[in-house]
Amino acid sequence: MAHVPAAERRPQLIKAAIAFMAREGVTAGSTRAIAAELGVAQATVHYIFGTKEGLYRAVMEQLTQDLIAQVERAAPTDAGFEQTVGALAAALWHTVREQPASHQLLTELSHFALRTPALNEALESHYRRVTEVTARLVSEAAERTGQPLAQPAETIARFFLAGFDGLTMQHLALPDEEAEHTCLQAFVSAVVAMAGGRLELVSVPAN
Question: What are the residue boundaries of the HTH tetR-type domain, all occurrences included (predicted)?
């Protein structure tokens, strides 16, 4: 068998790991199983990623990169603020409807990472990067449309992502197309209202 450089083999293994774990679940994703998925020796996986956690980190990074690319492609450059938020939510929701296995995998990996110290940094990096990109898109839309923001862009981004995570989990657990459409519309309206200062924020005790 011809030798394949590590730089070429790495993305192949990440793609194979995503396909396998999306199909079989995160806990089934051993280095042996991923190696078999691609038809290479298990030692190849360890040589390139070091450990199973190293492979998982690479998978999380790839899923994060893919999600960010989808969000950035969906961001309109000539729409109003409300239309921009709506377009971002609609584009993300389309990926949930069309690629539920990928979103389920990312959810499973996130929960797995919470209890795996070697993956804590990867999980933090995922949420940090997604939040930063969403906040940047919100800021750009506000500046382009002259929309003053009543809350910091990062706060709006975290609200947007938290709501979207909840809708995604509901879709994965209990899909209901009609209810989801209504909730998505209400969610976008809430984000826009929050950004414009029309959504009253209730004080929550610190303790």
Answer: 7-67
